[in-house]
Amino acid sequence: MFKLLSERSFAHLRLLSRFTHNESTLAALKTAANSVPRTYPYFINRTRFQSLPVYVDVKNGKTRRLTIVRRIEGDINAFHRDITNALNLETLAIKNASSQLVFRGDCAQEIRKWLTEKGF
């Protein structure tokens, strides 16, 4: 059983390496796959192409940038508390109905890096 999981995670990393061009992101993915899984009161589902659901929305004639984290399952308030403490982000909205968090500014790369370090 353990051998199957390790082969599966290696294939998953190989698939992700096609989509990631950044060396540090790939290194973070490898360490996250090899680490012991942790339990959190929340979970971030990846998209069908195995990317993290972190998006940048541009508004007001390209003068306002918002970062949106989608697909949050579980305790969204615990996720909000952890990410704001770790990255010092300014939150605009917590959307419980659609399981989304909206942050001010373009901080998508920081959030993606933090999520991969946590094992999502």
UniProtKB/TrEMBL annotation:
<keyword id="KW-0496">Mitochondrion</keyword>
<dbReference type="GO" id="GO:0005762">
    <property type="term" value="C:mitochondrial large ribosomal subunit"/>
</dbReference>
<dbReference type="Pfam" id="PF05046">
    <property type="entry name" value="Img2"/>
</dbReference>
<comment type="similarity">
    <text>Belongs to the mitochondrion-specific ribosomal protein mL49 family.</text>
</comment>
<keyword id="KW-0687">Ribonucleoprotein</keyword>
<protein>
    <recommendedName>
        <fullName>Large ribosomal subunit protein mL49</fullName>
    </recommendedName>
</protein>
<keyword id="KW-0689">Ribosomal protein</keyword>
<dbReference type="InterPro" id="IPR007740">
    <property type="entry name" value="Ribosomal_mL49"/>
</dbReference>
<dbReference type="GO" id="GO:0003735">
    <property type="term" value="F:structural constituent of ribosome"/>
</dbReference>
<dbReference type="GO" id="GO:0006412">
    <property type="term" value="P:translation"/>
</dbReference>
